Structure formats: structure tokens, C-alpha cells
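Researcher:
Attend to C-alpha cell order:
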Amino acid sequence: MLPAMTARPPLYVRRPFLAGLIRQLPLLAVLVTVGIGLLLVTFEHWRRGLVVMGLALVGAALLRLLLPVRRLGFLAVRSRPVDVVLLGGMGLALTVIALSIPGV
């Protein structure tokens, strides 16, 4: 007779803090990238910093489009189409505006 296989409880039951942290990784990645862009702006590389922030928003739109809701955490705020259009549109606008301003 085979021993009864006991199923392990899911991660959110065993380690709720770790499960919550893992769920917020997409948002954390976007926020870290925006922070890097802000640091670049602070150190007088404003064009590169704004492009990095714009691309972070485009990346957030792609994450929102491709990942399931249970993996997004707080990156999912509104409905999927609204989030993708707003994040992607603002990211593209910020990137295009930063690149279109003539340099000195």
C-alpha cells in the first residue's frame, strides 16, 4: 500500500509575507526603474532620466497586458484595457517629448 501523499499548503498560507512580496514584484520593478530615472534627472542627465521613466511606464503597460491579474499585485488598478492605454500612452508621450526637445 502506498503512503498517503499530503499536499503542501499554498505559499500564501505557509509564508504570507513572502507571498505578498512576490506578488508585488512587477510593481517593484517599475518603481525601481522610475527611481533610477529620477536619479538620472537629479544628476543633470534629464533627457536620459525621462526616457528611462517613459520606458518604465511602457514596460508597466506590457506587464499589465501579459501577466495574469493574480501576479500583478497593485499594478492592476483599473480594467486591463484602461491600464494598458494609460500606462502605454503616458510612457510613449514622456519618451517622445523628452527625445524631441532640442539639446544644448
User: Anything to note?
Assistant: The chain has a mean pLDDT of 90. Residues 47-104 form one domain.
